[in-house]
Amino acid sequence: MAGIQRPYVIDEMISAKAIAARIEVLAREIDRTFAGTEKLVVVGLLRGSFIFIADLVRELSLPVEVDFLEASSYGDQMHSTREVKILKDLRGEIAGRDVLVVEDIVDTGFTLSHVIRLLKSREPRRMEVCALLDKPARREVEVRATWTGFEIPDEFVVGYGIDYAQRNRNLPFIGKVRFPDETP
Hints:
Blueprint: E1 9-14, H1 16-33, E2 40-46, H2 50-59, E3 64-72, E4 85-88, E5 98-106, H3 110-120, E6 126-134, E7 147-151, E8 157-158, E9 174-178
Parallel strand pairs: 2-3, 2-5, 5-6, 6-7
Antiparallel strand pairs: 1-9, 3-4, 8-9
């Protein structure tokens, strides 16, 4: 039945403290890469990246403009539908500008690959990608982030902005979803 979820448990994988420390390092690397830019356009991919992008831009010393794009290939499912839909487009122009795309998790690669093609067609001067999480075991489309916070195994995760059917975004850590009725 749609909308009914089985009970699940969340096991902490990456602590809030580890995330904060990694974001500081990522911000310094991004600052160095984009040093001298007039204003960096930071494009957050909604909805999963909203906490990550907020924490990341606060650590950057560069002048930034923040915009958002909402793309989805999951809906309320645990697996990608492989059909990427743009649900909300950018408000601003990126032609001739330096752009940093901020993604929560690179999984199959379908969503990020689609977004990169779309944004490159708008002719930014330079575009790089920063992802909080990378799950290379699930990759079906070849795509890589310039910077990655953490590489994780093939587990379904929630927290720190990432959800399961719109739940658990508010957790301060990254946690693995586990169903008690499944054998490990």
